[in-house]
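FAQ

Q: What does a record look like?
A: Structure on top, sequence underneath. For example:
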């Protein structure tokens, strides 16, 4: 009996101590929650306040509101993904960056402005091909290819396209009196990895640079080079006329130039109801291309993860009808005019939004989308598609008209004869 009472007393004391400890923990936790402003709503962990961002910004970037990166010879603006979310200027910009990354788009966009006589320093990209469209100005381009050390140089004017395969050293020199403005697409949805030649030079030990370059004076000559305080990504020294006495802008043979160049403004026009396309793209067997255009076509197809570029003009108040692409994401930049874009996601969720000069748009592969001009002037864009093969597209009128009328009658619960009101697809 005594043993029983002793055990009972021990149990009571243990239980009392346990209840006391739990009470103290609860009181302490409640006080902490009050001090920090956390509300106990029964959830396992509190949810931070989240700003609601309009879903349209998954497909729209107001580039004019983004940060301008300035250099002695010009400036760059980006519509891109950033690993550090603090580098975004707004929640809307972050939504776009996350969208192109989440969709594995293989696309980044930037505008490059180079002042007269300015130079985009020789550089290369570790993780992307680069495609560009010259919107304004005149430039001299240089490309150094791998292995055979072939150096290709050429001149480019507004309306023409440039192409730099991944890891080829290249430069852009403004040789005109006005600013050059390039619209650039890079084939990565990650952060672009770039190295400029001057940074590579100054990061190389002096003795190693001397042994590699073998200058007169050896390492002592190498030591006369001084790294500039300002980033020289776009270079324009104030004493340029003293530094350069004899500049020549050589044009390489066409068989070399057209590997990296395409005369988009001079290419064939493809008309559709409501507008015009012009294409810088790969064509199987070079169909519809002249001899120099075939060189560019094969160059695109030869390299991995290249892009198809196009200009699209939609006449005032006309429509680029709903369609989707089987094999490519699409990104574009509004050059002139104003319009409306619409997107239908796989879930059936839709969004539409207005677009204007300087806006960047993005349509993931397989999403149905349309563009409509809503101004008195034409809507004009440069577009890029994430394929170096032929673009595969299906338009709404094609898949709707191509579906048997009795299938449509069953689907829409509408009499079969009613579908005769839609013009049928022409038999081929």
């Amino acid at each position: 009996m005594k043993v029983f009472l002793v055990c009972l007393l021990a149990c009571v004391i243990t239980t009392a101590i346990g209840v006391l400890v739990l009470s103290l923990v609860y009181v302490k936790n409640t006080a902490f929650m009050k001090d920090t402003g956390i509300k106990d709503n029964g959830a396992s962990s509190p949810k931070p306040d989240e700003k609601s961002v309009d879903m349209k910004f998954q497909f729209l970037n107001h580039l004019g509101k983004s940060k301008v990166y300035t250099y002695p010879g010009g400036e760059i603006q980006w519509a891109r993904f950033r690993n550090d979310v603090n580098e975004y200027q707004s929640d809307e910009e972050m939504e776009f960056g996350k969208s192109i990354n989440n969709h594995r788009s293989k696309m980044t966009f930037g505008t490059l402005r180079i002042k007269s006589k300015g130079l985009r320093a020789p550089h290369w990209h570790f993780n992307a091909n680069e495609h560009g469209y010259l919107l304004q100005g005149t430039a001299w381009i240089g490309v150094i290819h791998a292995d055979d050390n072939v150096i290709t140089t050429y001149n480019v004017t507004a309306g023409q396209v440039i192409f730099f395969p991944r890891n080829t050293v290249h430069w852009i020199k403004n040789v005109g009196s006005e600013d050059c403005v390039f619209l650039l697409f890079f084939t990565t949805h990650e952060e672009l990895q770039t190295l400029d030649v001057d940074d590579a030079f100054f990061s190389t030990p002096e003795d190693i640079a001397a042994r590699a370059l073998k200058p007169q004076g050896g390492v002592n000559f190498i030591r006369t080079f001084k790294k500039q305080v300002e980033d020289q990504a776009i270079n324009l020294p104030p004493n340029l006329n003293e530094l350069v006495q004899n500049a020549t802008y050589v044009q390489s043979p066409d068989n070399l130039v057209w590997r990296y160049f395409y005369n988009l403004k001079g290419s064939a026009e493809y008309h559709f109801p409501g507008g015009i396309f012009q294409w810088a793209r790969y064509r199987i067997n070079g169909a519809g291309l002249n001899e120099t255009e075939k060189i560019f076509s094969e160059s695109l197809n030869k390299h991995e993860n290249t892009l198809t570029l196009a200009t699209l003009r939609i006449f005032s108040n006309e429509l680029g009808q709903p369609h989707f692409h089987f094999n490519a994401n699409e990104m574009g930049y509004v050059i002139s005019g104003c319009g409306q874009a619409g997107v239908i996601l796989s879930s059936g969720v839709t969004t539409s939004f207005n677009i204007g000069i300087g806006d960047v748009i993005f349509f993931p592969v397989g999403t149905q989308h349309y563009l409509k001009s809503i101004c008195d002037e034409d809507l004009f864009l440069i577009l890029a598609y994430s394929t170096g093969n032929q673009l595969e597209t299906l338009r709404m009128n094609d898949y709707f008209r191509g579906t048997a009328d009795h299938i449509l009658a069953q689907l829409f619960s509408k009499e079969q004869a009613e579908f005769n009101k839609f013009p049928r697809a022409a038999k081929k």
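Q: Is there anything notable about this one?
A: The first helix runs from residue 2 to 36.
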